[in-house]
Request: fold
Amino acid sequence: VVDSCIIQRVQHEAIALSSSPNGRRSVRIRNSLLERSQQAVEMGYSGVGLDATVDNCMVRHCVVGVRYGDNYHGRPLRGRLSVADSVFENNEIDVLNYVRDLKQPAAGSYFSVSRCVLPLRPNRRETACDAVLLARFEGNVAAPETEWNMTSLLL
Reply:
């Protein structure tokens, strides 16, 4: 459990979620600030026994906010990652969902994002990466103008 933490200025992944194909792990990241890292959270190579949630977090000033995928070829990617009630701000790419071996995004049963504030910036490069994911939201994305109580985020 990562709870009520500030994680910043990490060279690669602030939180790297990877496991062996037969590993079992449950990870909860909540009420935390993740900022100024290459990737805030990455669900990398993993087996079905890895289950992770990111809840009520602020992810900002990163190259990639949350990533489902890995740079390794031929490694399984079967963990589950759920992101909810979180805010993404000033990242180059807010959400990246791409499994290299499949050459497509992961199915919703493996990766989901709901009730998050994601800035919609049509002229920035994350639009192509987020397009598949945003299509699944069906109204669960708050407008960027939504007021967010940072005090509750760090309590």
Q: What stands out?
A: Residues 31 and 153 are 5 Å apart (CA to CA). The radius of gyration is 14 Å.
